[in-house]
């Protein structure tokens, strides 16, 4: 459903938020290990997330990535739109270019409901919610 880049971005944000809640800064290596992602790939993603203001970073031996209270309020729909664009919310389920209400594909009506529900879920899901669930051991980021 999400691109691999988007999956890693979401996982990285949740991991950084969890690890930096006590003022800690997290290294790329620790993030990579914590979310089971390739280090070079997550470095590129984190650079993009930092430029967009989703995370903050500090260079140097005691540096790393961290998030403050404002960043914890970011919802997943914002992250998905920034990384993957709007296609998940507006695109055709079969990938057709001309799919619309007036010219629907075979799954248009059913897929429209799924897209609407997905948008509602992602817009109402803030990073903080996932950190809270991790800390309560209700969810996990790595097997």
Automatic annotation (TrEMBL):
Pfam families with a match to the protein in the record: Rrf2
Annotated PROSITE patterns: HTH_RRF2_2
SUPFAM superfamilies, per database record: Winged helix' DNA-binding domain (SSF46785)
Spans through the membrane: none
Protein name, UniProt field: Rrf2 family transcriptional regulator
Organism field: Flavobacterium agricola
């Amino acid at each position: 459903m999400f691109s691999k880049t988007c999956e890693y971005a979401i996982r990285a944000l949740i991991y950084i938020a969890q690890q930096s809640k006590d003022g800690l800064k997290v290294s790329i290596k620790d993030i990579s290990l914590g979310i089971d992602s390739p280090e070079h790939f997550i470095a590129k993603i984190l650079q993009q997330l930092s430029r967009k203001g989703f995370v903050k970073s500090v260079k140097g031996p005691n540096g790393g990535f961290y998030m403050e209270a404002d960043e914890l309020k970011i919802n997943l729909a914002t992250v998905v739109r920034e990384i993957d664009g709007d296609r998940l919310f507006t695109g055709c389920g079969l990938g057709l270019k001309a799919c619309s209400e007036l010219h629907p594909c075979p799954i248009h009506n059913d897929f429209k409901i799924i897209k609407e529900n997905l948008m509602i879920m992602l817009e109402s899901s803030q990073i903080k919610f996932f950190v809270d669930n991790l800390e309560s051991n209700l969810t996990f980021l790595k097997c």
